[in-house]
Amino acid sequence: MVRGTKVAALAVLWAAPLLLIVFGLRTNWRATWGAVGVHVDVLPFADLWGITGSLATLRNHGDPFTANPGDPWNRPFNYPRVWLKLFSMLGINNSRISFVGVAFCVLYLICVSALLVRCVHSLDATVLLVAGLSFSPLLAIQLGNTDLFIFALMFAGCMAHSRILKWGALFAAAILKIFPLIAMPIVAVRGSRKERRAALVLAVLVVATFAWQWRDLNAIRHNTPVSSRMAYGVLSMKAQVEEGLNSPLGHRLPVSWIAILGCWVAGGGVIAAAWKNPTFIDESTRTSANGELFLAFGAIYAFTFAIGSNWDYRLIFLLPTLPLAFDLTRQSAHRKWAIAYIALVILAENPLELISAIYGPALCQATTFFLFLVVTRFLTLQCKPDLAIILSGDCDE
Questions:
Q1: What torsion, rounded to 10 degrees, do the Cα atoms 38, 40, 46, 50 define?
Q2: Domain containing residue 253
Q3: Which are the contacts of 388, defined by CB distance < 8 A and separation ≥ 6?
Q4: Closest Cα partner for 299 from 138, 112, 174, 210?
Q5: 241, 243, 251, 339 — which has fewest CB within 10 A?
Q6: Please, which residues bridge with residue 311 across strands?
Q7: pTM value?
Q8: pLDDT tens digits, 218-270
């Protein structure tokens, strides 16, 4: 029964996005993806055009961080410069964008397939399939967004048995996209003192790299738009509050900042409550591969929510956290929280604003906010035993 469900789930997982890509490339990209509710631009894998367009701008002696006429939509470049060097070194231009977009999709599907194969119950596999083909991952696939590649790097790092491969993959992900940096110290909490030192050295190298490129980092921050629609995070909530209050940009009301402070205070309150909570996650569950996946990917979600505005495709980083939630549904002490978490992930990845333009955006923000609180709670419960040992000074080399 379980095996049959897995085989069927794997078939659907691979067939659905690849058929959409094939039909889209052969017929009409916009119409094909629009038929499944993912409204896109005419050009396939639009986010990749921003990188190849920036290379064209550089060749014409321009600065893509300030003005990017090489991009079809004139979008200023908002990735670390290493992406330009990689695409240039690999000879990736506009004619090869489709190959890169398909490769990113395949990497994503391989990772989700690995999660599906490891499921021990049919219901788990079914839920994972629904999450894996929800709006957010389909949006990432049709855009050819680089988060798909970062997702694969992070997943490979968490699943690798070699420490060199693990920390190498996490380091590469952080260099390529900045925000995976937060996963390194969180994952290191569970390791030995030697691993924590290695993680600290690598984290310092990442920080030093971006400090050296501070002008680029500042440009990336300004070039990344803040949206109140199809996005999550405290800055998205702030933007939505300002829209609701009809506050002009030059006279922002303090209420919008209260929304941010409220999120941070609520997150801090959840951490404090979880730390004092006498309930522990079962040791074998906490230290399992599923537990490490939750640490790394859950930390990314909590961090990106707490500091910025992120397009909904970044919600794909919640998928590898689901296996631990499945495990916790079988433990009475955590069953209700785990079921609520799974439901919130499914809701977040399928934005309600697609159904209701009036109430949907607010409901989406509420969903991602409560998801932030639940993720923070589970992260604290996972890290509490290891942090207690580290703080006491009683830890192994």
A1: -120
A2: 2-392
A3: none
A4: 174
A5: 251
A6: 231
A7: 0.93
A8: 888 888 888 878 899 999 988 888 777 664 444 455 667 788 888 999 999 99
Round to whole Å and give the CA distance between 188 and 192.
Answer: 8
Structural domain includes residue 184: yes
Dihedral sign for Cα atoms in the order 72, 74, 78, 84? positive
List CB contacts of 220: < 8 A, sequence separation 6 or more.
Answer: 65, 77, 78, 79, 80, 178
The SS3 assignment for 232 reads strand
Q: How many domains does the chain have?
A: 1
Q: Which long-range contacts (CB under 8 A, 24 or more apart) does 112-117 make?
A: 112/13, 112/319, 113/10, 113/13, 113/14, 114/155, 114/159, 115/319, 115/320, 115/322, 115/323, 116/6, 116/9, 116/10, 116/13, 117/6, 117/10
Indicate the length of the chain as a whole number.
Answer: 397
- Surface-to-core class of residue 60, CB atoms within 10 Å of its CB (0-12 exposed, 13-18 middle, 19+ buried): exposed
Residue 227 lies in a domain: yes
Q: Which residue has the tokens 């006429």?
A: 69
Residue in the block written with tokens 């809701």? 347
Place of tokens 């910025």: 308
Contact status, residue 108 vs residue 131, Cβ threshold 8 Å: no
Question: Is 397 inside a domain boundary?
Answer: no
| Closest to 66 (Cα-Cα) out of 94, 58, 213 | 58
What is the rounded distance in angstroms from the CA atom of residue 161 to the CA atom of residue 163? Answer: 6
Instruction: Give the β-pairing of 231-232 and 310-311.
Output: antiparallel
Mean pLDDT of the residues in the chain: 89
